[in-house]
Amino acid sequence: MTGGAAGELAARLAELTGDLIRARGENPGGTEEASVGVIAGFARAHGLHVHIAEVASGRPNIVVTAPAAASTAPDEPAEGLLFLGHSDVVPAGDGWSGDPFEPRLAAGWLTGRGAADMKGGLAAVLCALADAHAAGCLAAAVSLAVTVDEEDLGTGIRQLVADGLGPHAGQHFAACIVAEPTDLDIVTACRGDAYLEVQLSGVSAHSGRPADGRSAIIAAARLITVLVENQEHLDAHAHPLLGAGSWSPGIITGGQGTSMVADACRISLDRRLLPGESAERIAGWLMAAAAEAGITGDGIGLDVEVTMEMPGFITDHDSPAVTTLEAAAEAVTGQVPECTVWTAACDGGYIARDFGVPTIVYGPGSISEQAHHVDEAIEVAELVRACRVYRQLIGTTCR
Fold it and tell me: N or C: which end of the chain has fewer CB within 10 A?
C-alpha cells in the first residue's frame, strides 16, 4: 500500500470511528440506535446489503453483508466469513479530559468512549467489507453482525442466534472473527460469563427476639460461604488454558430496618464459565447446595434466576480459521501474531456453541489499557493494520 493510499485509509477509518463515537450508545441506557444508523448509512453508501432487526424499542441488531459476486460465485455455495461486534459502550463516567463523545485526534491517537471497545474495530471491518465488495471478486458472502446490549445482558446476541443469524439462516461460515480489542493478537479461547440473581426470603420479626424470625440476610451470608468453598474446588480443577471458573458477588441488598429481622435479601452473582458449562445447570447446583447445607427450609426460601449468559469457547490453534488469519496478518505486517486466551467473555461463544463455527477474537485496541478506561483511545495506525489484515483474510477465505 502506497503512502497516499495508507493516509487515505487512515483518514477514512478515523472519520468513521469518530462518527460512531459521536453516536454514543451507553449501556445501560438502550440507545444503540444512533450507532446502528451510522453503520447502515456507511454500508448503503458503499453498496453493501443491510438487514436490521429490532431487539427492543430503539435497540436494533444490524447485519451488513458484502455479497458474493455473480461472476465468481461457484455452483455450490462456498463457506463465507462472519465478523461479529457490538454497538453499545459502557457509560463514560467522570474524569475525562474532554467530552467523551466528541472524538479528539492528536499525535495519531483517537480519543473517545468506545474508541477501542469497539467502535474502532467496527470501522476497520466495515472499510474492509466496502473495499472487498468494490473489488467484485468475492466467491462467498462476508458479513458483519453487530449486536446491541453486549455490555450488559446480551439480549442482542441471543436474538441474533434465535433468528438463525438473521439473513444468513442455514449458511455455513469458515470462521467467525470477533473484532474486540486484542492488540491484534489472536485469541483462540475465552471464558464465558453468567449473571445469577439470587432471591432469599425469610420471616420478619422484632430484632429483640430474632429467634421468632428467619433472617434472609444470615441465610445469604451462609450461601456466600458455600460459594467461597466451591471456589476452592473450582481452583483445584482449573482448565489448563483458561484457568478456573469463578464466583463474584457484585451486589447484595436486603432488610427493611435495623430493628427488624430481614425477610428478604437479594444477591447479584457473576459466575465466569468454562467452555461447556451451563448457567442453568449452575443455578440448579446452587439451589441443591443451599439445601444440602441446611440453608433453605424452616422459613427460608431461595430462588435463582439466570439473567445473562455468554458461553465460553475454544478453537484449536491448528484449525484453518487460526492458521488462515495468521497467514493474513503475516502477509500484511511481516509478523505472525501471538496466539493467546482471554479470561474475559464475548458474544462469540454463542456462534461457536450454537452454530459450530470456529471462532476467534482479533481486533485493534487494548482490552486492558484502553477499553472501559477514562480517556479511552486507539491508535489510528493500528486501525489501518487491522483493516488491511481483515481485507487480506477476506480475500484469502472468500476468493
Answer: N
Which candidate, 154, 146, 153, 156, places its Cα nearest to that of 178?
146
Does residue 166 sit in helix, strand or coil? helix
Q: pLDDT by residue (tens digit) across 62-104?
A: 999 999 987 554 555 578 999 999 999 999 999 999 999 999 9
DSSP state of 67: P
Q: CA 215, CA 267: separation in Å to the nearest integer?
A: 14
Q: In what order do the strands lie in the sheet with 301-310?
A: 246-254, 264-273, 192-201, 301-310
In this structure, are strands 313-314 and 109-111 parallel, antiparallel, or unpaired?
A: unpaired
Distance CA 221, CA 233 (A): 19
115 Cβ contact partners less than 8 Å away, ≥ 6 residues apart:
17, 21, 103, 365, 370, 376, 377, 378
Q: pLDDT for 359-390, tens place per residue?
A: 999 999 999 999 999 999 999 999 999 999 99
Q: What is the C-alpha separation between 28 and 152, in angstroms, rounded?
A: 7
How is 234-259 classified by DSSP, letter by letter?
A: HHHT-BTTTB--EEEEEEEEE-S-TT
Helix boundaries (H) for the chain: 3-22, 33-45, 120-135, 155-162, 216-236, 279-292, 320-333, 348-355, 380-397
| 125 and 179 Cβ atoms separated by less than 8 Å | yes
Cell numbers for 264: 428478604
Distance between CA atoms of residues 85 and 28, nearest Å: 17
Instruction: Tell whether pTM > 0.90.
Output: yes
